Amino acid sequence: MTLSNKTLRAAVVATVALVCVTGFAPATITPALADTGVAVVVNKTAITNTDLARRIAFLKLRHETGDVAKKARQELIDEQLKRQEIARVGMSVSTMDVDQAFGRFAASNKLSTQQMGQILDKAGVGVEHFKAYIAVQMSWPRLVNARYASRSKMSNQDMVTRLLENKQKPVTTEYTLKQVIFVVPVAKRATLTAKRKAEAEASRAKFPGCDQAMDFAKNYLDVSIRDLGRVMKPELPDDWKPLIEGANGTTTGTRVTERGIEYLAICNQKQVSDDLAAEAVFKAEDIGKEDKSKGDPNSEKYLTELRSKAQIINR
After folding, report:
1. E-assigned strands of 50-200?
2. Is pLDDT above 90 for 289?
3. CATH number of the domain enclosing 200
């Protein structure tokens, strides 16, 4: 289930009012529930009773009705399957991405992150539980898109129909990109991130161009280069799109990711108007027109596949 900002905002506002007026915490975890006993095991990873109690509180905060305990259990199982697959493929958003999303959400509710944390704690959800939820919500769509994008090629008939409707082929920008990664080991993120970010920022002015990228990387410790090839503007990942479009020169600004500090080198960019460009534009338009309330069928298909292969033990 995807949680909309609007839905949770209403729930948070209601909780704020309740806490402020009465001092009552509507779903605070009691000692009886807050034990570390195992509720479910998903592929050898435990979901504890504490996790379950927090998710029940979260569902109540979202005004879910019915058997919330059953819903909470299923939601946590699905979330764990997604988290494991995200980790396997290596497509998780970074801790900084999650923290920034949490900050934006708090600000959208006219709260500081500290105030938002207090509300979540009083409601029995907790900040870390909420952030773990955010991380999966942000990472999973990227994984689904990466898996199914190449399988959703338009048929020739659809392409011809769209071209006739538009009367001419659309024009878009094609980028040739390389990814520069200043690696930060997970165990050293707290101590090394700021230093590596400064190194990455300083290196941008010295980047010699894509042809010499590999030699450039040899001048630094633990820097890797990935060739991303050609990417159409409508296919740019949401995280990178504003940085690429706003780039001043041959490199983008830096981002903190699960791998470390990254930026993109723009090797070339040009306007294109061919069949591939047309398909990219048309697919982007179709995605924009989709009814988000119905969910992504590819997401459900992917999740069903993960469920069929999983070992799930309810305690």
Report:
1. 172-183
2. no
3. 3.10.50.40
